[in-house]
Structure formats: C-alpha cells, structure tokens
Design a protein that fits this description.
With 117 residues, the chain is an alpha+beta fold. It has 3 helices and 5 strands. It has a 5-stranded antiparallel beta sheet. Residues 6-11 and 13-21 have low confidence and may be disordered. It holds the Pfam family SQAPI. GO terms for molecular function: cysteine-type endopeptidase inhibitor activity. Keywords: Protease inhibitor, Signal, Thiol protease inhibitor.
Length: 117
C-alpha cells in the first residue's frame, strides 16, 4: 500500500510542478483562508522558503488564495503575501505547493515561486 501512495505522490508532483498555476482551476477552493490549519500550512511553507533563500527572513502577512486536492494525503496550493521581518514594508508574494501526508501530518514543500502582484 505504501508503494501505491508513493507512486501516486510522485506522479502527482510531476504533473503539479509542470503547471502549478493551472491547478487553481482543477482543485477544491479553500473557502476559509484564515482557517488555523491553512495558516499553519502557509507558515510551514514560509519557514521552508526562509531556509532555502538567502535574504532577510520573511513573515506571513496573509493567505490570499488557495485550493486543496486529495493526493495520498492533501496537496495545498496557496498564494501567500509576506513581509520582511526587519521592519521594511516590502511585500513579496509566492505561490507554494505543500503536500501533507494523511494521518501523520508530515509536510513537504514541493515547490514555491515568487509571483508578481
């Protein structure tokens, strides 16, 4: 069963990375973008981004858009707004794809990309 889940995840990731933006048309919209779990997913993604980019740390300003899709767990595609933590009012926006394993709550940042406002 684990092999099937891993295969489904790998195939889904390959498809998702090819056309991340197009997913907003094909997944279930998240109605409450302020839901604590959605905010937790966004903060997780931002923490991972902060670990990967060489810039001032960013903090979450808002979750602007989102959808989810069942893929051996849940995949969340979110558009988030961030601010630098050094007091500057520079807002950066990202599109992030996070996969959360069913049952365990383990998360993985699949992809992220800066987007223009």
């Amino acid at each position: 069963m684990v092999k099937v889940e891993i295969l489904a995840l790998v195939l889904s990731i390959m498809v998702l990375q090819d056309s991340v933006s197009a997913l907003f048309d094909g997944c279930n919209p998240i109605n409450n973008l302020n839901d604590p779990h959605v905010v937790e997913i966004a903060k997780f993604a931002l923490s991972e981004i902060n670990n990967q980019i060489n810039t001032r740390p960013l903090k979450l300003k808002s979750v602007d858009q989102g959808c989810s899709q069942v893929v051996a767990g849940l995949s969340y595609l979110l558009r988030i707004s961030t601010m630098e933590t050094m007091g500057l009012d520079l807002i950066k926006k990202f599109e992030v794809l996070v996969w959360e394993k069913a049952g365990s709550g383990d998360k993985k940042l699949i992809s992220f990309k800066p987007i223009n406002a």
